[in-house]
Amino acid sequence: MNSFRGFVIKEFKQIYRDTRTLVVLFGMPVLMLLIFGFAIRNEVNNAKVGVLDLAKDEVSSVIIQKVSSSKAFQIDAYLTSYDEVESIFRKGDIKEIIVFEKDFTRNLTRKGNASIQIITDATDPNLANIVQTYTNAIIGDYVQELNANIKPDVGIKTHTKMMYNEELASVNLFVPGLIAVILMLVSALMTSISITKEKEMGNMEILLVSPLKPSHIIIGKVLPYLVLSIVNVFTILILSKFIFGVPFVGSYLLFFAESILFIVTALSLGVFISSVANNQQTAMMVSLVVLLLPTILLSGFIFPVESMPFPLQVISNIIPAKWFLVIVRGIMLKGSGILIIWKETAILIGITLVFMTLSLKNFKVRLQ
What we know:
Layout: H1 2-17, H2 19-39, E1 47-53, H3 58-69, E2 73-79, H4 84-90, E3 96-100, H5 104-110, E4 113-121, H6 125-149, E5 155-163, H7 171-201, H8 203-208, H9 214-242, H10 252-276, H11 280-297, H12 310-316, H13 320-334, H14 338-367
Parallel strand pairs: 1-2, 1-3, 4-5
Antiparallel strand pairs: 3-4
Helix pairs in contact: 2-11, 7-9, 7-10, 7-11, 7-13, 9-10, 10-11, 10-13, 10-14, 13-14
């Protein structure tokens, strides 16, 4: 019994002396709880909406004020004509546009009813449904206030329109997101493990003292994963179109160019992780915690970023998948061109250059 007790004590001491094990045991649960607890939200906060007020009368102004005072919405655009709806939605920021008909108050008082059209960006069908429900609730509450003070009762009819995904097919949301997750998994995770494997086997030291430059070593290690990731893009696109029926209305050339850019971004992250990790286990843990979980939770893949607490919204800006999702959904579902997605493209290029520079610097340090 004493030997068993001594063995158990030895195991406890061994765990306490291993910093990496302590991080996994205590740091991982806390980190996952914080990320999941704050990122998973069914409600909507500060969703950006636009208003097309063709009436510009008293009642329409009151309803606009009620929408803007709600925590769920933030009025970000005032349209002047219906022709602006398409271009506003293609930019990707506006989630809903509320359209008031002409003579809105006049129709309400004389005919007893008036109409409001609610146009929603349904590239994210879950968010579109929630936003539309909130808007209808605000309008319904206002109608009840009116009918409590006037007789006969009046009504406001809402006509809804879902753009880019009229059937509210969930695959239109998840397939573009899965492209980002799969490319990040194959490119970043596999690259980091591959290079750290060379370190564990002692091959990296041989490469570092060879005539090869650090840039040549990096390119040689990531080139196979670049090719394989491009093949994955072709495979995913074919399956999404012919198996799941996801529409593709944009430019294929632009789509593949942006996909290659994201692959290079993921590869640069993988190389950076491998340059600071000493073994495959560490590289895998860092890749899963720093890349995969944020890609799923903080990129807008499943949950809208706008509904998350402000600190997480700030952190999401450094997640490459967030910007790639905007690009992919814009190209596939909206037909967006480079003039619309140039900002997201520039951010991905910037992230790539930063991590490429850091990776090369770490390799050069090892050569000294």
